[in-house]
Amino acid sequence: MSASTPAAGLRERHKQQRRERILEAIRELLRECPDETPTVERIAELADLSPATVFNLVGPRERQLAALSDALLRELDACLALAAEEDPREQARRIVDETAELFIADAAVSRYLVNSGGRSGALLQENPIPQLRAALRRGQASGMLRPDLHVEALVGHIATAAGGALRQWAAGQISDAAFRTRVRFAVDVVFAASASEDRAAELVTPLQRKRRRGSR
Predict the structure, then answer these.
(1) Would you give the DSSP letter of residue 120?
(2) How far apart are CA 87 and CA 89, in angstroms?
(3) Among 170, 213, 166, 212, which residue's Cα sits nearest to residue 186?
(4) pLDDT 10s digits, 81-100
(5) Residue 147: pLDDT above 80?
(6) Which residues pair with 145 in a beta bridge?
C-alpha cells in the first residue's frame, strides 16, 4: 500500500497538470476568437493532447464552462482575503473592486462565461457574499452602521446591483470604467443608507460628490 500511494499521487498530479493545460488552451482560443466556441479538436491541438484526453478530463462544452468558472472562483477566493484592521467600507469596496478587476483582466474569457450562462454569470451574487457579510458586520460592530439592519438584505443589494453591472459589461453595454464605478457605487449606497447617526455625514459624502459631478 505504501508503494502505491506515491504512484497514485504522481498520477493525480500529472492528471491535474494535463487538465490545467486544457483549461489554458481553452482560454487562449477564446482570447483569439471570443465569438467562437472552442472545439475539442482545437483544444487538443493547442494543449498537445489527444481529443480523447481532453474529453475525458474536461468533457463537453457544459463541463468546460463549469471548469473555467470553478477556476475563476478559486482565483477570486484567493484575492479576497480580508484584512482585519481595514475600514469596513473600504473593505467592502476592495471586495467588489478586486472582483470586477478579475473579470476585466481576462475580458474575453469572462464575457464568454457570463454570456454563455455559466456559473460565473452569478458570481457577483454568490462568491463575494461571505466577505461582504463580514465587512458589513464589522461595520455594525464598530458603530459605523446601525445595529438593527438586516445584513443579508444589504449584502443581497450589493450583489444584485454588481451582478447586473457584470452582465451589462459582458454584453458590451457599459465600459470597464463604468463597471468599476457601478460596483463601487452599490457599496457606497448601502453604507450611506445604513449609516449610524454619528457616521452618516461621512458615509453620504461619496454620493454627494457623485451627484455634484453628475450635475455639471
Answers:
(1) G
(2) 6
(3) 166
(4) 655 567 999 999 999 999 99
(5) yes
(6) 195
pLDDT of residue 1: 47
Residue 38 DSSP SS3:
coil
For cell 468558472, name the residue. Answer: 69
Query: Is the per-residue pLDDT at 195 higher than 80?
Result: yes
Identify the pLDDT of residue 129: 87
Q: Nearest Cα to 138, choosing from 194, 205, 182?
A: 194
Question: Which tens digits make up the pLDDT trace of 104-123?
Answer: 999 999 999 899 875 554 55
185: cell is 457605487
pLDDT at 119: 56
Would you say 204 and 195 are in contact if contact means Cβ atoms under 8 Å apart?
Answer: yes
- Burial class (CB within 10 angstroms; exposed 0-12, middle 13-18, buried 19+) of 106: middle
Contacts 24+ apart (CB under 8 A), 150-155: 154/190, 154/194, 155/129
Inform me whether the pLDDT recorded for 215 exceeds 50: no
Q: Could you tell me if 37 and 114 are in contact, meaning their C-beta atoms sit under 8 angstroms apart?
A: no
Residue with cell 438593527: 148
Measuring CA to CA, how many Å separate 204 from each of 2, 163, 195, 211? 63, 23, 8, 11
Contact 159, 190 (CB under 8 A): no
**Can you name the residues that pair with 195 across neighbouring β-strands?**
145
- Average pLDDT score, the chain: 87
CA separation for the pair 191, 199 (Å, rounded): 10
